[in-house]
Design a protein that fits this description.
Blueprint (H helix, E strand, L loop, with lengths): L1 E6 L4 E8 L4 E8 L5 H5 L7 E5 L3 E2 L18 E4 L1 E2 L12 H7 L3 E4 L3 H11 L2 E7 L4 H9 L10 H4 L5 E3 L4 E7 L4 H8 L3 E7 L4 H5 L5 E4 L10 H10 L5 E4 L1 H9 L3 E18 L5 E13 L8 E7 L5 E6 L4 E4 L14 H10 L1
Helix pairs in contact: 8-9
Length: about 350
Amino acid sequence: MRAYLALEDGTVFQGEAFGSDVAQTGEVVFNTGMTGYQKILTDPSYCGQIVVLTYPLIGNYGTNNDDFESKKPWVRGFVVKELCDYPSNWRHVMKLDEFCRKYGIPGLTGIDTRALTRRLRNYGTMRGIIAAGEQDPDKLVKAAQSAPSISGQDLVRVVSTRQVEVWGEGPTRIVVVDLGAKYNILRSLIRRNCTVYLVPAWTTGEEILSYQPDGVVLSNGPGDPKSVMYAVETVRRLLGKVPIMGICLGHQILALAMGGDTYKLKFGHRGSNHPVKDCETGRVYITSQNHSFAVEERSLPESEVVVSHRNLNDGTVEGLRHLKLPVFSVQFHPEGAPGPMDSGNLFDRFMEMLA
């Protein structure tokens, strides 16, 4: 079946449909990872987005019951150069086409994803729409132009848990504020003998402290950090009372709580191969990333906060450390999933802060 991807700037790509035949709008973004597409599909940070994969062949190991990073997929659409119809892997349960159909994800294959990626790099991420069947391209462009912007949307309320979940049985008590947490963050803490209390994003500081936690982790999540000011207020109430680690969106929210500011990147960072330098040791990590926003370095209070990590591609802030409190954060994903776990030792650093 024919399918289209229309962008708000008037560009239209025509290819073949796979997955669901429902039409969906979203922010069109690209990911440069070579593997891990099921973890990308189920990462809550992609809520509200149509994801384009730059690697040309996708679906060759199918999908399985293990590589979920949340309870279900969250992407609004999936775009690939070539879809593999004959996956081969010992864990394979269903084809990517079947997976997307099951979860209502419209897919598009057979287009020039390099040309699409170049457009997004040159002009920035754009609103778009995927639609299957016979369509009027002009009407699709208008639909893309009328789609809501990712900025200002509170997507955290869409993906966050509605009730407290308890993971693990270790002696160390950690509260994870679920802004869109990936399962591998929870697994990383459980492997370090923690009992993890996964709480809704709107949980107050007082409620979090009632668990008598040894530490608090602010998770990753989707969208604009300034649309989640209730979480910023919660973090303000926690500062100085408990050790805190922030990851991705949690890093941005922590920066806002400490008096900093954030801004939207032109096309964001998404992939498994982003070089990040530890400013203290000089070591370079290859990191997994997925974010549209970044912390404005000049906005940070110099007497209290230092930049601990920096992106070597564009110089943006990749980590923060408080000078007086047991508080730090990183913009990238130390838990990987997908991608390298070069920086997984940051969980060990967090555990050392709790002693």
